[in-house]
Amino acid sequence: MGNNSSTQLSPVSVWALAAGGMAGGGIYTVLGVVIAVSAQWSWLAFVVTGIVALCSAYSYVFLTNKFHEEGGAFIFLEKVNDKKMAGNLSWLLILGYVLTISVYAFAFGHYVSYAFHGNPLLTRILAAGVVTVLILLNLAGVGKLTRVEIVIVSINLLVLVALGAYGVSQWDPVQLVAGIEPRPAWSVFFGGAAIFMGYEGFQLLTYEYDKIKNPKKTFMPVMLSAVIFVILAYVLVALGATMLGGAVSMISFKQIALSVASKSAFGLPGLIVMTIAAAFATAAAINSTLFSTANLSKRIASQKELPAWFNHTNGNGIPDRSIVLLGTLAGTLAVIGSLSSLVEAASLVFLFTFGVVNYIAFRESNHRKWIPATGMVVAALVMLSLVFRLAISKPIALSGIVLLIVLIVLGRPLLLKSNNKQEK
């Protein structure tokens, strides 16, 4: 496969990167959002959406092993001869990754600014600044630092689990609804739908398939165990952090919910540790997502499903135009967008994408079809819940998302046709 053993990813590295891809930025940004919707049922919302993530992880690995090629959903659709859908979904997926990067940058700005008693201006400068720095690092060819990323992920997971475990040890269920109205049990679907992007990230490893040691044997158990661990960690943090900070505080300060919980429990030292963990975790998540998305864009452009402009690389072999454009878009959204809107838009994109991947796996598999079938059904329920919620609470935001999808479906062929004419 063109990789020597020293550059290949061991099972431990794959596990850490998969778990970190999800928890790296996810829990820092979505906890306050899900508590606002599901309150005392937030932990169950993470379980419901975790089922979609687990089934989707199975489907991603099954299809990647079957086709023996990196590239994720785009390649899966091409392999089953649905080139038009592959193009549409690839554009939608890139949009989802841009939204995800913007959420991580948003979180970075708020967590660091809060620690320094910063104002909204400082928050925006930090959000734009971290994206700018990571764009420059990627252009210089030092964007993908796997070993550094694994260390950051390991410390981040340790901090999150420790906070959750300490909070649960102070068991006080009253805190789950402190200062707010309890929510009905069915709110788990709305809460889970709103924060599904918290599980986005594991599939980035399918873009690194050629670098994984013995993927046929190790990829499936490693990926599934990483997703299960993150589900359990999210449940632990959802319960523990809320018991430490109280529901009303977690909602009022949803942009920095984990800092609020850490400060309530451990004072200034807790705030410092959580700020450092959040800063490094979100920065690493921005970096890996930007790197992978730019390379995915280059791959799609080479298949003529994106304009050839995206296929350009600099002297370091980096898809420079993609890095700059995608990073700039994400940084701009982080500065002007609201947390809930960005999270929900990204969640909608990934719910649809994972639903499609589960459908392909269902069609292509001869056994264990119940796994992708479960992923499809639960993803559809959660996605419909999100659309219903957005239609009621944020009709303008939903209209914007629908308009973007229509533009992609109708405008993509015209743009590609015009681009191909110019190349000739």
Automatic annotation (TrEMBL):
The keyword Cytoplasm does not apply. Keywords: Cell membrane, Membrane, Transmembrane, Transmembrane helix. Its main location: membrane. GO terms for molecular function: transmembrane transporter activity. Gene3D superfamilies: Amino acid/polyamine transporter I. It is a multi-pass membrane protein. This is Amino acid permease. It comes from Marixanthomonas spongiae.
